Amino acid sequence: MKQRIESLISSALHSLVEQDAIPNISAEDIGASLHVERARDAAHGDFASNVALVLAKRAKSKPRDLAETIIAAIAKTDDVEEISIAGPGFINFRITRLSWLSLIEQIRSDAEVYGMSKMGSGQKVLLEFVSANPTGPLHVGHGRGAAYGDALARVLRAGGYQVDSEYYVNDAGRQMDILALSVWLRYLQQENPAVEFTPNGYQGDYVVEIAGKLKEKVGDQFRNYSDDFFSDLPEDGDAAVDLLVERCKQTLGVADFKILFDQGCDALVEDIRQDLAEFGVEYQGWFSERSLVTNGAMEKSIAVLEQNGHVYEKEGAKWFRATDFGDEKDRVVMRANGSHTYFATDLAYHFDKGERGYDRLLDVFGADHHGYIKRIKASFEALGHPPDKLDILLVQFAILYRGKEKVSMSTRGGDFVTLRELRDEVGNDAARFFYALRKPDQHMDFDLDLAKSQSLENPVYYVQYAHARICSVFRKIEEKGMPGLQSASPDYTLLVEEQELGLVQTLARFPEVVESAARSLEPHQVAYYLRDLAAAFQSYYNAHPFLSSEDNLRLARLGLIDATRQVIVNGLNLLAVSAPEQM
RNA sequence: GCGCCCGUAGCUCAGUUGGAUAGAGCGUGCGGCUACGAACCGCAAGGUCGGAGGUUCGAAUCCUUCCGGGCGCGCCA
Q1: Please, what is the end-to-end C-alpha distance for chain A in angstroms?
Q2: Is residue A448 part of a domain?
Q3: C-alpha span between A372 and A362 (Å, rounded)
Q4: By residue range, what is the domain housing residue A536?
Q5: Which end of chain A is more exposed for a tag (fewer CB within 10 A), N or C?
Q6: CATH of the domain at A566
Q7: Each residue's pLDDT tens digit, A376-400
Q8: Coil vs helix vs strand at A488
Q9: Res. A408: pLDDT tops 70
Q10: What pLDDT is stored for residue A411 in this prediction?
Q11: A445 CA – B22 C1', rounded, Å
């Protein structure tokens, strides 16, 4: 409907430009300055445009006069009942009732496709999100990234993009070594409780569990522990843990250490995969960081950087000249000791993604990684990819509270609330909707006690309840043997109530909401829309009966709520929330 | 110290890319179930859009500055 108005104005402007009726305005200006919005106040009509205000200055005429000219040039159609000028020069449109009502049948025949758009014209998008290190189970902070990323993937698909989502698995590096060490020590403690635990190790109970599995697999084979393992440790916890990792590798040897390492890594990746799947999050790909090293991709990317002249050596290390691309300082890719940095694999990963034939790359990062964005984009450009092909989106942190008390979320300390706990506590639907209700760049206060106590007040139930009520009406129709929608085609002109028109107009917004959410990468718009839609329905439901109305009117009303049901389902699907027929 | 994000009703948050009288939910007060599910509906109170300047027909939205909060600034990942 909105598009219809836009094209009306657009063609009017084009013909005016051709006739030279408005000075200083060219055909190119039209697209940029043309905006149509829903009128906020019904007294203004249904849609409003401010083109006249925008163009007036350039055209050297008064906005209201220009509006007059534009209106005169707009072609007459059956859809538009009235066009008027208001305020400083807004052009207001009123759509005919019949035109609104015709939407009901359109929704019912489009069914699950209603709201889907071709806006993205099949562009290929690679969306990476969560990508948490497999050093522990996902916590509620990761849950936010998961809910956002997955909803974004769904919204983009609805917007006509072809989206693959991917999880980058950090299955290498120091943190993972520390995890392996932690597992080993827990394994030793099973037999000998006197064995100490490492400072700065992973303290969560899940490590003990993994150690148990390790025991099942290797038996006592890894028990060659000597009592001086913990001797002469440096004061500093980080240095100490690094030394212990070294000793662990020496004690076990390369092959056995790898078995140990994989035991921890595989268990946690599998745990994360399951957790996310249960949360409704499916990935098309899981990309291994380690593979970049073993298959030479990392070395190749660094070689490309060197060929392009963006690498230099200093103090024995290889540096990427990130400052040439706007970063604050240059960044090390290869350390003086010959090992690569995390950044080296990450730039190789983005190089790889850039080569895979996608039109657009999206990364969703936690806000704690914002310092990282510049160097990633810098390296991406230095490797020869167009910088605006890659967008890095930030999801702000969820700050956790238990009541008034702030809860830290350290994976190492083992003191965190897992996503799984949250899901068990409030359910997947409530958790998904709760996350979906905030835009990503909003800091989020997540009070766990409140989340639990309010689980019944979660707006998700409000939306689901509207759906269940509609289904219930249809069940009743069936029970009482009343004629249903299959019996005849409804006469929608019988719908004359204020709430009925309001509901149809809300239904009409859905495609606009989907497009807007996809364009601005903000799936939360869908969540807010669904609440509005549910409210429009509940208000209608309370004001007017279905069963007791006259046969033809009832049929028309059933058609309207059937369309409503369809849009609720389509919308909830975008958030991976279920639409139960009974609650 | 430097950089990124945020500040809107008592609380939690929206605000259609600069539009008309700033909106929801929760909470508070009042009212509403005898063909449909009260997990609902209706009405009301509640605001210096953190403060101050600026840009223009027009600012919660853009710019400057200050205040307050979150997060980052390693040859860690």
Answers
A1: 34
A2: no
A3: 15
A4: 458-574
A5: C
A6: 1.10.730.10
A7: 999 999 999 999 899 999 998 777 7
A8: coil
A9: no
A10: 77
A11: 24
